[in-house]
Amino acid sequence: MKKKILSKNFTIFLIAGLFFCFLTLIRFTWMNFTNISTGIDAIQGTVNLRNIDTSHNFIIKLQKEWEFYPNILLASENTQSVEQHKVYTNQPESWDQYFQHNDEVHYGSYRLKILKEHTAPQMYGITIPEGLAPYELYIDGQFIGGLGNLTADYTQTAPIGRPVTHYFTLTTNESEIIIQGVQTNPYVQGGFQKEIIFGDLHSMEQSKTFSITTQMAVCLVFIFYLLFTILLWIIGIRDKSLLYFALIIVSTCVTVLVSSNKILFSYIPINWIWANKLFYFSYINNMMFFVLFLRELMKEYAKPKILTIVPLLCATYLLFIVVTPIEYIFKTKMIFIILFIVSPIIITIFTLSIVIKGQKGVIFLLLTGTAVVTNSLFFSIRQNATLPYSHYPFDLLIGITALSAFWFTRYFQSTLQTEQLSVKLQKEISTKDDFLANTSHELRNPLHGMMSIAQTLLAKQETKEDQSDLKLLVRIGNHMTHMLDDLLDLVKLKEKTLRLQPKPLNAYNLASGVSNMFRFMLKGKPIELIIRIPTNSPFVLADETRLIQIFANLIHNAIKFTEQGSITIDAEVVGKKLYISVTDTGIGIEKDMQERIFDPYEQVDSTMTSVSGGLGLGLSICQELISLHGGTISLTSTLGEGSSFTFSLPIAKTQTVEYSDSTTEMDTTLLKFTSLLNDLSQMKESFAASTEETTLVTSQARILVVDDDAVNLQVLVNAFSTEPFEIETALSGTEALRKLQESSFDLVISDIMMPHMSGYELAKYIREKFSISELPILFLTARQQSEDIRLAFLSGANDYIRKPMEYMELKSRVQALIQMKQSSEERLRIEAAWLQAQIQPHFFFNTLNSIISLNGVDDEKMEELLLAFSDYLQMSFDFQNVDLVVPIDYELKLVRAYIAIEQIRFGDRIRVVWNIPNQMSLFVPPLSLQTLVENAIQHGILPRREGGTVTICIKEMEKLFTIAISDNGVGFEHRIPEKKTSVGLVNTEQRLKQLFGVELTINSVIDQGTTIAFSIPKT
């Protein structure tokens, strides 16, 4: 572990060291790139350029022995009288050594003679570095330019020294340069301590432009960072670190503009005193904001006191710079150097410590600190550089860029965390919604059991005393049911899965219908319910069920919170919308509650909640439903005077209503509001009627109930105890499938949410064997999302009823499905009998022709054929053919009669092999074997000229009988098309499936024959 930590620390130090070396390498490369390598030494005040081409690409340093005249201004005095004061300087160097009194203001003149080959007049340039201010430049006795005003600028008003390039024309082969000036700043060394550069016009302009452009480019990059920072501030990111970063950029730009070329002072003419103050102020200010920015960024990692002390020291020194005379600033320059160098070192040390701790992204802060340290350490080198234009742009640029990289890294990390939290929050919201839906499902199951038992017991009670408590239990159960409905509605609205079915509606009719059904709630209350919606108001485009729900919620709320007065419903047209208001004279709503009254789970008062009940979802659902319609809802209320809810709906383009009976929808929607107030007298009568009503089911139906909860199974068994049903139960889908194989049923009632095999899967398995008419499926479950209902019907369900269900509704739906199934069976039986009764004309006439042809030829055979034909006709028209099953002997008698007729007609072409036990207790669907035998003869052996053999085989096994009809006829290739061409085969198979749950098994080979078989379980 220690080795791992040491290795990590070594890597961090190595990165910092390599980055420092990289910055140093860039700096020296830059200095080498911008350096003017060529230097011509002056000898006793003369520079000889006669052997050098000065016409182009010519730029040199004028160094070494310049003539210097202390305390003499050559251009203003007689040059002959001053020759004795001439000395030779070793440029670049300070001139202080040539003056005797250091406490005086020094002035003097530099002179240099240039010798060159004269070809033609040519423009040249000379760059005079910072040093003297003010000064004047003369070429061959002609004034060219200068800095400041040599005669007007005094010690307090002189400008600060800065590099300036002057341009002039030389027309002779010998020229004289004179620079005379004053050293107004007594606190620095005088004279020119940087190189004086001379060259042709193009080369000098190129050198100057490159240096100034470099500085301006750096400033532009910083301004881009500043604009981006301002943009972040404008869009609402109010962070201290953002403010500090902006101030760092501003102060850094100022340091760039007041150093090197000192571009700022070219446009802002301030004296040397304030210029120097601005120089020191900008650098210390920059360091202070760097430390403050670091402290703000590092507060989540560490809070060292030094990061508070250093900014305080910097702020103190800044105040000192502003208020103190300039001489004290120069005398305390060491404080400036310490703060300027120590601050970035502190920054680097603390960033290094945080990087070592393993904080992500802080490596960029370490690189920033290293860049600032590098800039500070080379500050003195840059100050002592010999070139006038020597701006180095990369340290601060790299430092700010690394700082921005850290900031953006942290921002992106924060954004990523926010996205992750958002995803997690969305997942939590989805989980919450699923929890609500699943909770609703889980609550519905026990509620279903309670209400079913209560309704069953209520139906059995006769006296009012016995019914009282049960009716209360049913009312409470209904109320809980509709509270769960509200929860599911809210989930659907949030998930945007609720679909509207808008159509033109008459708002007056709907409001009147809802109001009429609420009037019974006003019994005993001095409240008047008034409808003021104009009867000729335009139709609105809305979902009928949902608009009823909106009206019901608003009117119900008004009734709950109004003790006396009136509830008024009116409407007016505004633009393309109809605005409907529900106004009451109730207790009103406080202002603070009005702002959140439409939020989920919000209620006016907890004391009212205890009286009125509910979850506080009604108004929230109303708002969401109205929003789905493209409208809005608002509230105006005065405490103690009443409230008015106003909502808008779009006016329908088509002003014709599709009239439909909305009573069912209205009853269902309003049941939730009446469940706690209705005395259930009508329900009592319905229960009594339902128990006394004669059932329409013609025989005792068998129902298979499937649920993984044994309590739910028992509840349903009890619910059907008053009905003539035979109930079988199964605790799983697997058990249900096994029982379906063993026996036949008229209806399957199944839950959806079951382990191992859901109700959907069970339905799919059942539909592989039985059609929707052969075995109906009723889903009884708490799940009622739209996708659940859709999936239920796609899986093969016939109907769907939700828990907790109404007893009468369950009974009605079950009876309807059983009647449908029995009607289907009846249709199949009648169809089979009808098919048998519809004797084919050619069969009838051929048989008669055979009888006539045998008359007088073979009377014995004719008599045999007459008897067989008589038996066949008698059994074909027997009413026993409409029964579900008949004894096997009865069916075989018909088969023998049919075969006898065909054998007499076709002779040896039809041969029959009987393989049947002597005694069997077997019942088969009527006309089932006869249909298969007829199919074998007509479509199997008769198409062959030589005929064939039909084998009728019945085998008795332990648990079932197998019946097979085989022939050695022509056969066919595909089973499905062959079976579909025969109505008799399809009918036979459907009856077998309904009665015994079995199908016909058909095996056929071309030119070899066909075998059709089925099995019947023993009873």
Comma- or semicolon-separated keywords:
1019 residues; alpha/beta; 11-stranded mixed beta sheet; 5-stranded mixed beta sheet; 30 helices; elongated
Query: What is the rounded distance between the termini?
Result: 79 Å
Shape: elongated
- Largest β sheet strand count, sense and barrel closure: 11 strands, mixed
Average predicted local confidence, pLDDT: 78
Number of helices: 30
Query: Measured on Cα atoms, how large is the radius of gyration?
Result: 54 Å
User: Percent helix among the residues?
Assistant: 40-55%
Secondary structure: number of strands: 30
Low-confidence stretches: 606-613, 661-667, 674-698, 836-842, 975-981
What is the structural class? Answer: alpha/beta
Strand content: 15-25%
Q: Can you characterise this structure?
A:
This protein has 1019 residues and is an alpha/beta fold. It is 50% helix and 18% strand. The chain contains 30 helices and 30 strands. Strands 1, 2, 3, 4, 5, 6, 7, 8, 9, 10 and 11 form an eleven-stranded mixed sheet that branches. Helix 13 (507-518) crosses helix 14 and helix 14 (544-560) runs parallel beside helix 18. The longest helix has 67 residues, at 394-460. The chain starts with a helix and ends with a strand. Mean pLDDT is 78; it is low at 606-613, 661-667, 674-698, 836-842 and 975-981.
Summarize the model shown:
With 1019 residues, this protein is an alpha/beta fold.
